[in-house]
Amino acid sequence: MDKEFFKNLTIKKVAKAMQDGDTTALELTQYYLENIKGKNGELNAYLRIFAGAEDQARKIDEDIKNGKIMGPLAGIPFAIKDNMLIKGEVASASSKILENYRATYDATVIKKLREAGAIFLGTVNMDEFAMGSSTENSAFGPTKNPHDPARVPGGSSGGSAVAVAADMALASLGSDTGGSIRQPASFCGEVGLKPTYGRVSRSGLIAMASSLDQIGPITRTVEDAEIIFNIIKGKDPLDATTVNEDVIPETKQENKKLKIGLLTYDKNVVAPEINDMMEKSVEMLKQAGHEIMEVTLPYLKYSLSCYYIIMPAEVSSNLARLDGVKYGLLKEGDNLLDDYLKTRGTGFGKEAKRRIMIGTYVLSSGYYDDYYSKAQEIRDLIRRDFENAFDLSAGGVDAIILPTTTEPAFKIGEKTDDPMKMYLEDIFTVSANLAGVPAISIPTGFAERDGVKLPLGLQIIAPHFREDVLFSLGKQVENAKIKV
Question: Catalytic residue positions?
Answer without folding.
Answer: 81, 156, 180
